[in-house]
Design goal:
Blueprint lengths: L2 E6 L3 H12 L4 E7 L2 H11 L3 E5 L7 H10 L7 E6 L4 H10 L3 E4 L4 H12 L7 H17 L10 H8 L3 H10 L5 H8 L3 H15 L4 H10 L14
Parallel strand pairs: 1-2, 1-3, 3-4, 4-5
Helix pairs in contact: 2-3, 3-4, 4-6, 8-9, 8-10, 9-10
């Protein structure tokens, strides 16, 4: 199966480099490029790609706004988005997770990492590698607390109510997802089939009114089901 990709970045040289890497693969094709968030939304609605590589900061509408628009579009249920970021974009990474991006990738990732990221997201997994998941969500918690936007170290009763909507098995699956586990990883850990894991993920998204697996991870931290690195680990 050919993975159809749209590349979005305000720098033409970066778009060219990404296109060359992706089209070197036999199973990938770039179906379009855009240089602004607004153009990206129009392009994706026209081409209906499988995966969008979206720069976070661009003129004429940033990538975060573009992702939010794509996630809210009921005609694009199968399109997944990877945000392209740098080490200096903490706040933007947090906002992109909230908007519904399926993951993020550093702009200086090597070609093999880029290709693997596209394949992973296309297969239905979120792109939150175990080595960085907790750091990223911990940053989210710190930023949100600084703005008095969410709970302190203990989840609020309202956040905890999220967990009441889940079955015990769904909670088990969510704990593993929050560590960056793939469907296969979760299936192995819980002695389930991958199809069953996918079913649980789909059920949780519907039950909680969320759009992506990454939003599930953020919800798990908000509710205190999993805690940031250095705060004692998972709390199932």
């Amino acid at each position: 199966m050919t993975v159809r990709v749209v590349v979005v970045d305000d720098q033409p040289t970066i778009r060219l480099g990404l296109r060359m890497i992706l089209e070197h693969e036999d199973d990938m094709v770039v179906v379009g490029e855009a240089g602004t968030g607004a153009d990206a939304v129009d392009l994706v609605r026209t081409t209906r790609p499988d995966v969008v590589l979206m720069d976070i900061r661009m003129p004429d509408g940033n990538g975060i706004d573009a992702v939010a628009a794509l996630v809210a579009d009921p005609t694009l249920p199968g399109t997944r988005t990877i945000m392209l970021t740098t080490f200096h974009d903490e706040e933007y990474v947090v906002a992109s997770l909230r908007a519904g991006a399926d993951g993020f990738l550093l702009k200086d990732a090597d070609p093999a990492e880029l290709v693997a990221a596209v394949r992973r997201v296309h297969a239905g997994d979120s792109l939150l590698d175990p080595s960085v998941t907790r750091d990223v969500v911990a940053r989210y918690v710190r930023l949100a607390e600084a703005a008095d936007a969410v709970r302190s170290r203990t989840a609020s009763p309202a956040a905890r109510q999220v967990l009441d909507r889940l079955t015990p098995r769904e909670r088990d699956v969510l704990v593993h997802l929050a560590t960056g586990a793939t469907n296969a990883d979760v299936a192995t850990a819980l002695s389930l089939t991958e199809a069953t894991v996918k079913s649980h993920v789909s059920s949780m998204l519907t039950r909680l009114g969320l759009a992506t697996r990454v939003q599930l991870v953020v919800a798990a931290f908000d509710a205190g089901l999993v805690r940031p690195a250095g705060d004692g680990g998972a709390d199932a």
